[in-house]
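agent> step 3/5: call structure_predict on target 'Arylsulfatase' (Bythopirellula polymerisocia).
agent> reason: downstream docking stage needs a structural representation; sequence fetched in step 2, passing through unchanged.
tool.input:
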Amino acid sequence: MKTSKTILIGLVMYLTILPCAWTHESSTESSVVLPRPEAPFAGKIGLTYKDSEAVKPKLKIPQNFGIEDAPNILIVLIDDCGFGQMGTFGGAIHTPTLDRVADNGLRYTRFHTTALCSPTRAALLCGRNHHSVASGVIGEAGTGFPGYSGIIPASAATFAEVLREYGYMNAWFGKNHNVPDWETSIVGPFDRWSSGLGFDYFYGFVGGDTDQFHPALVENKKRIEPPETNEDGSPYHFTTDIADHAIRMMRSSKAVAPQRPFFVYFATGATHAPHQVPESWIDKFKGQFDDGWDKYREKTFARQKKLGVVPEDAKLTPRPESLPAWDSLPEEERKVYARMMEVFAAFTAHTDHEAGRIIDAIEEMGELDNTLIFYIAGDNGSSAEGGLNGLLNEMTFFNAIPEPLEMKLASLKTLGSDKHYNHFPAAWAWAMDTPFQWTKQIASHFGGTRNGMAISWPKRIKAHGEIRDQFHHVIDIAPTILEAVGVEMPAQFNGVAQKPIEGVSMMYTFDDADAKDRRTLQYFEMLGNQGIYHDGWMASAIRGIPWYSEPEPGDLLNMPWELYHIDEDFTQANDLAKENPEKLAELVKFFFAEAARYNVLPLDDRKTERLNVANRPSLTAGRKTFTYPNLLRLPEGAAPDLKHRSHTITAKVIVPEGGANGMLITQGGRFAGYGLYVLNGKLVYDYNLVGVDQYTVKSTETIPTGEVTLKAVYKTDADKPFAGADVSLFIDDKQVGRGRVEKSIPNRVTLDETLDIGFDTGTPVAEGYKMPFRFAGKLSGVTIELD
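tool.output (status=ok):
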C-alpha cells in the first residue's frame, strides 16, 4: 500500500476519532508536586532554646511518606539481544539466571522495545515514547527537531527521580547512552548524566559501547582507569566489574540505612559489540554452532514451541533474500562465522552469570522476597551491524572499510580477546531473533522490537513460571514500578510541568494470565522504518536493511506497507495487505496520527548523514586553534574534528638528560586513531586505519634535550572522506621526517576512547609501547591548529 495520500486524513483523525482509541493512557491527572514544598515549622520559637520546642527532621525514607514495605527494585537490561538468543525463550544459549527469574515469576512473550539502544533506554526511564523524550534515534545521529535532539526534556522526569524523592537509594551500573555527545566531556553540563536522571551513584561508561577489557570507565562524573583485576583476582572484565560494584553498593546501602530500599539499574554493555569475553567461557561452546544459522533457527523454533513462548500454530519466517544460506558458504567462511558465534554465545552466558551474582547477593541479604526484578533480554533485537561477513573491528563497519577474510582466519585463536573489537555476521543476528523477521534498527517488525522479559517479586507475584502474552512496550515499565511502590508521576517536577506518562502499568497481568490487554495502540519508528499496532493488528513498512549502510533511494511518504493479524499470526509470517486493504488503510492513518502526536515527524531515514557533527551543538565549531593542558581526556564529541582536514599539532616540551619517551597526543587506540609520541628518542606519528592498515612516520633525527618544540603537519589531499594525506614531522622548525597516510578514517574515530594529552588511556594506537605511556619529560600543553 502507498501512503502519500493518507497523511492529511491521518492528521485530521488525530484531532477527531483517535482520542477514543487512546485507552492505554490514564485519564486521571496527578496533583503531586515534587520536590515537595517546605512545610511550615510546627514547633515553637521562643527567645532562647529553653522556651522553644524543636521538631526533629525526619529521615527521607518511604515510611515517612506513608509508603509501607516499599520493594527494592532491580532492572537487568541486556544490550542487543534477540528473542531467540536466551535459553529461557528457546535459544541455544543456557541462561540460568533469566530462567531463575522467570521460574520465580512471569515470562512475557509480547514485550516490545524501540529497535535501538538509547531510544529504548530513554523510554524505559521516562515512561514516555522515545520521540516524546527527544530520543527518536541515538544522540550521535540527533538533529534539530523536537523528537530527535537527544536532549531528554525537563518535562519528562524519570521514574528514578520520583523514587529518589520518596527515599530510594538509586544506583546505575553499566551503560548510559542518554548523554548528548557534546555533553560528555569534563565540563558537562551534567543534566542528562546519571545524577541528573535520578541516580545517587553511577559506575560504567557514557556512550554506545565500550571495550570490555579496557572500558571508558566513569565513576559518577569522573573518568577513571579500570583496575587490573576483578575483586576476586581474576583477569579484568567490565561486566564482572560492574557486578562487583553493584553487589558492594547494595550491601553497603542496607548495612548503613536498611530503612531505604534500593533501585539498582544494571545495564550491561553486553551483548553489544565488541563481543569480548574470558577465553574459558568460549571453550564451553566449541563446535556447537557448526550447523549454521539456518539450522539454529529451526531448532530454536522447535524449542520455543515446546516451552510455550511461541504458539503451536506459529510459522517460522523465511531468511531474507540478501542473507546467504549457511550451506552456500565456502568452508573457510563457515569456520570463521561459527567461531564468531561461539564467542557471542560465551559473551551471552557470561553476562547472564554476572547478573546471577547480583541476584544471589540480594538473596544472601534476605531481600529477595521483597525485590521487584525486571530482567529485560534486550533493548532491541540482535545487531546485524556486523555486516554480511562479520567483523574483527566494529569501527570498520562505521567507516565503510572492508576487512579481508585472511585477517579473520588469522585471528580465530584470539577472537573475543582484547585484540579485537569483534561482531558476528548479520545472519547470526537474524538467527538470534528467531522466529521473527529482521533485526535491530527495524522498528517495523518484531525482529527489531520484540524482546523476552521476565518479572519476579515473590512477595507480590504468586505465580511461578507462568507465561503472560499481553501486548506491552518498554514505556510500561515506569508506571508498573510507580504502581508497585504506591506513588504517581508528579504533575510538576523541579518547577516544570510534566508530560503525562504514556505507558500503562503491567501490574494487572501479575495475577491474571487471561487479563484483557490494556495497551491497544502503539506506534513504532526508527530510521524511517514504520509500524503501528492496534487491537491485534500490525501494519509494517520497512525502509532500510540494517546490514547495509544506507537504504536505497525511496519515498518515506509512499512506502510499501505490510499487514499482519498478529493475534493469529505471532511471527508476522502472513502479509494480508492485498486481502484487507481497508484495515491497512485504517492502521496507516493511525500511524501518522500517532506520529503527529508524539514528535515522530519529520520522518527521516538517513543513517551516515545524520552522524555529521554539523547537525548538533558543538564545543569546537568555528574554532581554528585548540590548546589543551597536560593529562586532559576528551571524548570525541567534545574534541576537534580532524578527519580529512589539514592541521598542525604542536607540543612544547622539556626533555631531560637521557631523553624522555611518552605520548604527546592521541585519539582512539587499537581499533582506530592516531598518535604523536616520542619513542627511543625519535618523534613518531602513527595513524591506525581501523586495524586494516597502519601508517607510521618516524623522525630521522634524535630529539635533543632541553626546551624543544615538536610538530606534526598533516596535509590532506582533499577535504572528503577517505582522503589520503602527507605528514611531516618537525623538531624546532626543522623537518626531520615525512610520510603518507594513504587512506583516512571517514566517519568516526572511536566509540568509547578519548583524546588524551600527555598519556594514553584505553588501548594503544600502535603496539610498540606500553600503556599508559605518560610523557616522561615536561609537557606544557599541545596546540592543534586547523588550516
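agent> step 4/5: record observation. Residues 331-364 form the longest helix (34 residues).
agent> proceeding.
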